[in-house]
Amino acid sequence: MRISSGIYSIRQGLKNIRRNLLFSLASVGTIVSCLFLFGIFYCVIVNFRTAMKDLENTVTISVFFDSGIEDSNITMIGEQIRMRDEVNTLDFISADEAWEKYARERYQDNYEEALRSFAGDNPLKDSASYEITLKDLSKQADFITFLKTLHGVRKVHTSEVTADGISALNSVVSYASIGIIAILLFVSVFLISNTITIGITVRKEEIAIMKLIGATNFFVRAPFIVEGVVLGLVGSLVPLVLVYYMYDTAVRYIIGRYSVVSNLFAFVPVKDIFVILVPVTAAIGIGLGLIGSIVTTRKHLKV
Amino acid sequence: MISLDHVKLKYPGSKTYALDDINIHIEDGEFVFIVGASGSGKTSLIKLLLKEMEPTSGKIKVADFDYSKMKRKTIPKLRRKIGVVFQNFRLLKDRTVYENVAFAQRVIETPGRFIRRQVPAMLTLVGLADKYKSFPKQLSGGEQQRVALARALVNHPEILLADEPTGNLDPKNSWEIMRLLEDVNKKGTTVVVVTHNKEIVNMMRKRVITLKKGEIISDEQKGGYIDED
């Protein structure tokens, strides 16, 4: 295609949008709502997943050993555990560290006195353990079965309910989001297709003349494809701006107003979210426009 | 240049042929009238020549294109060799005279510098150089048909198909259009005029092919209008 023809197609595409302003606005509006929701879902999911990851790291599995076990055996058990792929972190807590930790939590300000009074006689002498966090909590049950088979392991302590709950919630939120976004994307394609069909109907006579004069299929279709892409692009930029300011403002407000929340929960920085959200949303917007316009012109504009 | 061999056309659901065993051979540079009453098959013939429809059987060749062997994507190339003028002009109402003619060049991706040179020349040829800024609704029927003619000729087609070009015009404007078509023909373009304008056909003494109920009933050099009654 010549540059002048390209410019002509772009102009005609923009003209189409102006001519069917109401329908164009309706299409852009739907894409905006769809991608706005997508943006919000994305922010929520990213934060939720980060929170889940943080939470997963707090769900630890404690492995206690048989009474009187040799240090070399404990090291061997540790090496066997470390070799497993699902292990995220593995920390050894000695009996003394366990007692000190307990004393701190139990006696708080008086813990030093408690430590002194039991000096040389650790009440938790059989409480040395490995504390393990997993990369993926859904694999916890299998991992525990493995731990119980290890020679020298007396007890494996877990919080299974929490692990299952987190995994299930994570899956439900992910699938529900994907489902809702997929429906919205489908509606967007349908509306773009509708807008372009109206554009084609309005320009029916012009298209018929173009074909009789000898315009190629591509030349006839190009303005409508430009129209679809522009609608998609505008429809993706608006929600990006909206989501950016809303997320930024919401995070600032929550952190400023409810300091408790910020202690419990670390929001993902807006820049980290938008590094991915901008190209993905723009690609979805342009993609919706392209699919909508190509499908419609293929259906209606055969030479 | 234009050749139809044993061409038959039947519309889906119809029991009779719209065109039945049509044999027409038109040489380069000829001027031919195709005449006949409504329903005689004139419009179907034009549609076949423009490859808007496929014949039920038979062979069509136009400007070295064998329709039976053509792929869809070569249709635009064929149509660039055929200029078309319609009874109802079919101008774009939201564009000026200049833009309507330039449109024909834009759609076949003619470079802008050629468009700027050829469009005014073509408007001068049809006598509308001073009306290039006007919109179709500001022109008379004859003027609109001259714009349509300029649009059909601006790409220098080998063949000009005119479907009832004087159908909506008064006698004076009709003759002006016919004179333009004759001039175009003298410069080498093959001109095929579908019409039922008895007076013009009889006065111009060109080749006349008469259709009746889808069949050719007469094909005469320097012929006249055959009244079916």
Quick recap of the structure?
The complex is a heterodimer of chains A (303) and B (229). Chain A is an alpha+beta fold and 303 residues long. Chain A is built from eleven helices and four strands.
Walkthrough of the structure:
The complex is a heterodimer of chains A (303) and B (229). Chain A has 303 residues and is of the alpha+beta class. Chain A has eleven helices and four strands, in the order H-H-E-H-E-H-H-E-H-E-H-H-H-H-H. Chain A has helices spanning 3-19, 21-58, 71-82, 95-107, 111-117, 140-149, 160-202, 204-213, 217-257, 259-264, 270-300; strands spanning 61-65, 87-93, 129-134, 153-157. Chain A has a four-stranded antiparallel beta sheet, with helices on both faces. In chain A, helix 2 crosses helix 11. Chain A starts with a helix and ends with a helix. The model of chain A has no long low-confidence stretch (mean pLDDT 84). Chain B is an alpha/beta fold and 229 residues long. In chain B, 32% of the residues lie in helices and 24% in strands. Chain B is built from seven helices and ten strands. Chain B has helices at residues 42-49, 75-79, 97-106, 112-125, 141-153, 171-186, 198-204, and strands at 2-9, 19-26, 31-35, 57-62, 65-66, 82-85, 159-163, 190-195, 207-212, 215-220. In chain B, the strands form two sheets. Chain B has a six-stranded mixed beta sheet, with helices on both faces. In chain B, helix 4 packs across helix 5 (141-153). The interface between A and B is medium-sized, with 20 and 22 residues.
